[in-house]
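hey so i finally got around to running the thing on that chain from the lab meeting. sorry it took forever, my laptop kept dying and i had to restart like 3 times. anyway pasting the input first so we r on the same page abt which one it is
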Amino acid sequence: MGGASRGQPERLGADVGALLADVFRAEYARIVSSVLRVLRDVDAAEEVVQEAFTQALARWPGEGTPDRPGAWLLTVARRRALDGVRRRRRAEARTGALAHELGTEAADLPGAEGDDAVSDPAHIPDDRLRLIFTCCHPAVSPESRVALTLRLVGGLTTPEIARAFVVPEPTIAQRLVRAKRALREQGVPYEVPGPAELPARLPAVLAVIYLVFNEGYTAQRGAALVREDLCAEALRLGTMLAELIPGEPEVQGLLALMELQASRGAARVDGAGDLVLLADQDRGRWDHALLERGLARLEAAGPIDGAGSYQLQAALAACHARARTWEETDWPRIATLYAALAASSRSPVIDLNRAVAVGMADGPAAGLAALDRVDAEALRGYHHLPAARADFLRRLGRPAEAAREYRRAMALTENARERGFLAGRLAECEADAGTRDGGTR
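ok and heres what got predicted. didnt touch it at all, straight out
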């Protein structure tokens, strides 16, 4: 135990609460994953871990905080988990099996009869990779995977997840319930997929992390354009995954992509929180340390030829990162990379982005023609399609048509900042159209 002061109990209690909050974020996934290995039940594991934190809140103000808080909490949680198993099974065989599974002797298991002391193990087992793949198992629906990953791996509470995605708290609670039920009823094994299964299962994990990042990078709802908390959470999850699977190029590619995009965060909004387009951003405000880290990670991920989707997207982001000014952007290279991305991952969104790149490389008329080949029906609820069409029409000197597209785009977005930006462009086009009409009368 550390030598915490016994004076000023109110201050000490506040300090312990702050410390526990930090430990919760840093160690929750590691502790839950270790306990889940014993209990094989998500609800039971969470309950045991919550009890360990409650015990810490009760004991640390009087006894002092341990030198390694995470290890202390893990010991308490595993002891409670094993005690619960003993009470349910009442069988030495089960205790022996658990001891073997945990790599310990039965006599050394925490929670043995009369053992009230809490040890401070030198090593905390790291089963987080098992936890991540369990949360993202195909048995769990995609939307529930996000909620469960943020809850168990990220340590976010149900209200925090609800606030992050601007949905009612009961909706998130139901998603969590459904996810846990699916894992339980389908007997999903708590394990990392084998080498044969890993390529098929990894994309679901990467998709969950990138979805969290995208929601933070351009929030679909609410008043803020950027949700820095969600971006930071996705980066934390991506870094964790890269540490756990260091040799996987697509994991490195995803993390590089998020780092490169996040490096522009401070320049994407002005002092009022309104959107600043990439062309207008002050590149001196970019986080160049994060940018260089993303470029280095992309390089380490391997060659682009034959690369996966996230590596290609990171290479696209790198084109913007390397350009000292908007005018120096290598749009032909970007269009080529989008063509490669479209060939490996057919998606109407990719086709849309490729069309925009073509318009920037070859002019707005070429971009408009490329947009005409995009599957508009598949993107009928996606505001970026009419917004892109509006921009090309505006640049072609067709403001009345552009205004119609800006109105369509405004009707499709729920983000107040994006709506405000589109409204500004709409006003410009309406004024321009009025001027042109007046000049022909």
